[in-house]
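INFO batch 0412 | record 1 of 1 | parsing
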Amino acid sequence: MSVHLYPKPGENTVMQQSSIADSNHIERLLLPFQEFFDTAASGGIVLMVCAVLALSWANSPWYESYHHLWETPVSISIGHAVMNHSLHWWINDGLMAVFFFVVGLEIKRELLVGELSSVRQALLPLLAAMGGMIVPALCYVAVNAGDSGIRGWGAPMATDIAFALGVLALLGDRIPPRLKILLAAVAIVDDIGAVLVIALFYTSHIGVTYLLLAGGLLLIVLGGNIMGIRNPLFYACLGILVWLAFLRSGVHSTVAGVLLAMLIPARTKYDADKFEKLAGSQLEEFRKARRSGEGILTNHAKHAALLSLQSTTAYAETPLQRLEHALVPWVDYAIMPLFALANAGVRIDGSIATALADPVSVGILIGLFVGKQAGILGAVTLLVKSGITRLPPGLCLRHVHGVSLLAGIGFTMSLFIGALAFDDPAQLASAKLAVIVASFVSGVAGWLVLRGMPQITCGER
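INFO prediction complete | emitting tokens
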């Protein structure tokens, strides 16, 4: 279907101009999310490739090299202080703190200006996500009650937003933009729940002294925010200290990433009017400097104008936006793929059916594939049918069913929680295999349900 933006003979030009203005306004509102979606979707494809590579490598004749690689010791020393851990540890406890920091930035942005910024907007994704966390956990507990594998109840609660948006990307224009926004909002609430679960239920001991130290450092970060400090180096240095304090406290260090993100400034130093005035003046200086005909390397006035414009632009942007924009590609294309390579390599001895018959595997499979559908679709259906809230325009319950299936792609967060929950290598292997299989089945089923939707929008029913 093509859209004509030019007036045809006999049509009301004023109405067309108004329509064009409305369309441009909507495009501007959706642009930040569209940029995020493009990155997350392509990152999800890279994640899929790395997961397949890890699984293939771990079941190849060279499987020993796979395990030896991740057990390679890596040490960092400053003076007499030495941190010596395996490569696997540095990925799961070090790099993943950056992943959770970006998750925290996304959560804060959604709480300030996104789908979670008001009670009315947040009600649907909030209750949908809660259903999608509680029901899978109950499914897992029902299967593993009284068994040693009960600690894994948090694994089927999570949703991998990169994978889920990657599947939506494969459907192209068949998917209404509002569905992508709904899935992202549900997944972000899901992330909040996962962080709380890690902090409250997967912490072995509490070192009060170090926890108080972490709290003091976070107060310094808050003070820097209030004072208007915008330099990323200030927050990076304090962030490393907060991470180290959490490591010693017993609370998983990834929680430090989310808490630090919540304290990153989300205000601009220059408002739109001041930016426009300063930028206009600096562009005029640049135009004057151009008249000499010299290149940028020899024309100091031209270079000075560019530096001033760069500084002005930075002050018109929030530190939260700058950090998120800078870190998301690193997370999507480096940290998460490395995590997948290091954690998705499950060696399968015997048949897959036998491996998936373990109660831990059964609980995760049912939780992710059945529990997510029942929790999310059930919660939304109840809300809509009771009149408490309404679906966004253009969406129907079949769209929500597709989203509930895609939410069963637990992958990154489920693997991460599984690694915290299980000390027994056999149970951990069962959990990893179940997460991979359930994520694959959920992704394919969600794609098939949404692929069968008509391209025209539908109402609530």
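INFO post-check: The radius of gyration is 25 Å.
INFO record closed
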